[in-house]
Amino acid sequence: MLARTYRCGLDAAVDVIGGRWKALILWALHAEPLRFGELKRKVAGISEKMLIQALRELEADEIVHREVFHEIPPKVEYSLTELGQRLNTALLPLGDWGEENMTGIAKRRGVTPAPPHTPSA
User: How far apart are CA 83 and CA 17, in angstroms?
Assistant: First the structure.
């Protein structure tokens, strides 16, 4: 196995959140801990296999905490660690940039943007 060298902080950060799903998982967990099924519903389009894999990687990187409640039926909740909360905060400007440019990006890539998000009352 070749040793990996990070060239800068962005290289390390992208290694942690790389892929299609991890940043969306972080965003889904920003407000409160979620059970697996709730998280799967909030991250639309992710398969169960990909969600399990991404959660394991985020847990190994100490971004997500997995808590098992020993009850019947068993209950597992996922939440952001302090490190995960800081990473989510760092991603906010990226999300803002994406919101501001989503229509143009979607048009150039042939993707349909979601309708504008309206906060619930």
Answer: 13
Are the beta carbons of 89 and 27 closer than 8 angstroms? no
User: Which residues fall within 8 angstroms of residue 11, CB to CB, at 6 or more apart?
Assistant: none
| Residue 5 in tokens | 């060298």
Q: How far apart are CA 66 and CA 6, in angstroms?
A: 27
Question: Do 7 and 75 touch, CB atoms closer than 8 A?
Answer: no
Nearest to 87 by CA among 61, 118, 53: 61
Kindly tell me the burial class for residue 51, based on how many C-beta atoms sit within 10 Å of its own C-beta (0-12, 13-18, 19 or more): middle
User: Two tokens at 63?
Assistant: 């971004």
| pLDDT tens digits, 15-46 | 999 999 999 999 999 999 999 999 999 999 99
pLDDT tens sequence across 51-94: 999 999 999 999 999 999 988 888 999 999 999 999 999 999 99
> Which residue's entry shows tokens 């800081």?
86
